[in-house]
Write a structure and sequence with these properties.
The complex is a heterodimer of chains A (306) and B (329).
Chain A (H helix, E strand, L loop, with lengths): L5 H29 L19 H12 L1 H32 L5 H11 L8 H9 L3 H10 L1 H9 L15 H5 L6 H13 L2 H9 L4 H29 L3 H6 L8 H6 L11 H21 L1 H11 L2
Helix pairs in contact in A: 1-14, 2-14, 3-9, 3-11, 9-11, 11-15
Chain B lengths: L2 H6 L2 H13 L19 H28 L2 E3 L6 E3 L3 H8 L1 H34 L4 H9 L6 H11 L6 H8 L10 H30 L2 H9 L4 H12 L1 H17 L2 H7 L11 H11 L3 H27 L9
Helix pairs in contact in B: 3-15, 5-9, 5-12, 7-9, 7-13, 9-12, 10-11, 12-15, 14-15
The chains are: A mainly alpha (306), B mainly alpha (329).
Amino acid sequence: MIERAPWLDAACHVVLVLAALLTCVPLYYAVVAGSLTTEAVQRVPLPVIPGDAFLENARAVWARIGLGRLLLNSAVVAIGIALGKLAISVLSAFAITYFRFRFRQAAFWLIFLSLMLPVEVRIVPTFEAMTDVLMPVRLLVQLSGIDWAIQAMTGWRLEISADWSLLNSYPGLIFPLMASATATFLFRQFFLTIPDELCEAARIDGASPMRFFRDILLPLSRPNLAALGIIFFLFGWNQYLWPLLFTTEPSMATVVIGIKQLVPHGDSIPAWNLTMNAAVLAMLPPVAVVLLLQRWFVKGLIESGK
Amino acid sequence: MSESTVATLPATRRALWPALRRRRPAVPRVEHGVKAAGFGGQFLPLLLLTPQLLILILFFFIPAVRGLAQAFLLQDPFGQEVHFVGLENITSLLRSAEYRESLRLSVVFTAATTVLTFSAGLVLAFATDRVTRGRNAYRAVLLMPYAIAPAIAGFVWAFLFNPLVGPAATLLHSLGIAWDPNRNGQDAMLLVILTASWKHLCYDYIFLVAALGAVPRSVIEAAAVDGAGPLRRFVWITLPMIAPTVFFLLIMNTVYGLFETFAIIDAATRGGPAAATSILVYKVYVDGFINLDLGSSAAQSVLLMIFAVALTVIQFRLIERRISYDVSQ
């Protein structure tokens, strides 16, 4: 505090309290609506105090959209994306900072380019690529004439099965979201700040590159790994467009997609209590992560934006 | 400089050598961004990069190239017939009134969300920086929306403003405002702008709080001694010092508004009523997956990719030329 300015401090508190209320009121109303019966939720004005039907609604939601399975799917996908992103980006950052090799620049630019292609702008072609993962292999085989060679030598016609699709599978939900230029650059920046002496010492002691990576780099990166892991977990849990496209079977959907089926529209019974109940259940895990791991979360958020 | 060169130098110069050597780096940096002390080998680094590159090639580059190719082809949804039509898809897109309307909506939506999020974030960050009591509690509460899925935020806000049962709509009706986002396009636009801002506010807020915290106290105190009040200091000292963060956030907000709001739109309004909230990313989805107009959807993807690349380039130019007072984020 530099000078006394009680009126300004009071104004600051008022603004912050208002903003906190604006943040919380929508969530509070979600909880209220989620705990009312279907009749009560249609009363105007909506009651301000939660009802007593929360567990009952939760049971109804659980049965109607198979929420247990959806929560499991969300957890698998979110954890898979978080661990996958961390693993592949820490490995590639290690490769492009600690090795001088021929295609270093090329690899760097390939990763950099991917920054520019958000999922949303290439959904149709990516969807096609996902439903036919082997297309590039098939194309390669045809172009290189391998199929012709095999046919000539053995008389067999090589047919690569066309229907290896990642639709409705965990890999299909996880792999395309696993690449992360941001995380790669972040780890690269971090590795560049690690003193060269550590690497020299390790080499003098006879450590192989992977030994150095495992015993020195990874332990040093632990705070970064934890912070980014939280951000990526939230990213994975909160995905919408991707699971919406790549799951046609309801049992493979994530919980965020599952809620969509519960949103009343048109002539259906406006059972907003079930929708809001499911919404509350779906936001509990990520909100818990943010509130409990606040310090790590803030670190990860600020660093991943750099 | 290698050992042998040192050995061949005359004795007098050799005595000078250590002093000279201290001034230059131990090993000259030839390549940027690679450690001076590293490992040799050509095969291992490629192996380490394989998972990342495999995923990038399969799910980023091949789709992007296919999208580019498709933008120049006309394909009917059922048959096998494909015609090369050149720029036809793109020019017809630019001519179509629907696309222009969608472009206009995107600009309105993105500009409104950017301004709203940033200005609210700035006010709140200033207030958080100013108060001492309860700072962590405020921060914890204000950060909560980050954890909530955009789609869930969309569902919750759609409920709050639902003209039949929503408490916020009830409030508006009691004030005499005929609120109905299911029929009135402007109401629907307002709804998605509010939802998107509510969801994204925490992002701007936390970056601004961190930037404000990094402004050196001594500069602020010097200004205070010179008689500048809190607001004046904020406008004339703090704001210029956090300029890099401000630029960064403006770009990130634009990217957010243009590309990352699909879920909010789909959850809150489904692009309606009558395409009144159908911004570009929503239109790509509708044309590609619901109307099955692949050529047009691919052409839209190409235009979006151009926007995305342009924004990324601007962002990196800004980072390069970062106005740095050592408080940059």
